[in-house]
Amino acid sequence: MLPGIVISAAAVLILLLQIDLQETAAAFGQVRWWRMGAAFAVLMLAFVLRSAGWRVLLREQASLGDAFSATGIGYLLNTILPFRLGEVGRALALGLRSPLSFWEIFPTVVIERIFDLGFLAAVLFGTLPFVVGAQWATSAAILSALLVVAGFGLLYGIVLNPGWVQGVLGWFSGRWPKLRTFGEEKIDLLLRGLAVLRNPRRFLLVFLWIGGTWVLTVIWNLIVLVTFFPSPTLLQTGFIVGVAAVGVAAPSTQGNLGVYEAAVVSAFAALAADPAQGLAYALVTHGLYLLVVFVLGFAGLTRTGISLNEIYSQAKTQQT
Q1: Rounded-to-integer distance, Cα 210 and Cα 108, Å
Q2: Among 315, 295, 281, 311, which Cα is nearest to 24's?
Q3: Angle at 306 between CA 304 and CA 307, to 5 degrees
Q4: Model confidence, pTM
Q5: Rg (CA), the chain
Q6: Are 211 and 219 within 8 A, CB to CB?
Q7: pLDDT one-digit tens code per residue, 17-63
Q8: N or C: the chain end with fewer CB closer than 10 Å?
């Protein structure tokens, strides 16, 4: 955890040294609570769509309510545990309230994150050329879209022909035997999760549900952004969302404290916007996100009757 603490502390220190905190404090006076309520509702809906996409990956063997509750629990655990252990906790929580085992559930979480990476690439690389004002922006956006489509096409090709991955792993492990010990089980786990997508309808449904989640993410951020940024466009909002998503991938303290704010302020700087306003926007959106996560997490624990101790005990059982 030490590298994360150091990075978060460094991010906070840089923000304190470079930004006029009085201007940031004054920016909070512009907040309109009805906008926060609207953003809260859209963010909640985004979690519903994510849960619906996850349920498709689970072959509808869990109810939408159980998938939604487990998603809330997982995101809550991600804010209080290091190393994104909430993803493991999400699978464990659903396993306690469904006929599915942990090893049937966890691969679906991995697949969901693969879809997220694809959409993140589309959002970031599709908006970046326009933000920097490049003459080739349209061509770059088209190329980015084609690369993302090709990436999803490759993913579906692997779904239909899992032997491709096993063959590649076999080729490499023949030269580096330790690779087989390290990667064979993990590759089998991934392929097991991908098998659910052999049905084109399921693949399309997951694509639409997770894609809808990203659309709503841009929308709820736009609802908040208009308070701190003059006439933001969808492209500018998507760019900020993309940069923030990349930023929180860096090691940090629980809840991405500091690194999220630093990523957002850097996105504002790239857009030649006021960094003090950027910090205010980052603090508001971060606080709103954490509020939703804690509401959904504790609601999920209450609805399912699961305790954190049960999840911990289940994790120890899986280890043995």
Answers
A1: 13
A2: 281
A3: 150
A4: 0.84
A5: 21
A6: no
A7: 788 888 888 988 888 889 999 999 999 999 999 999 999 999 899 99
A8: C
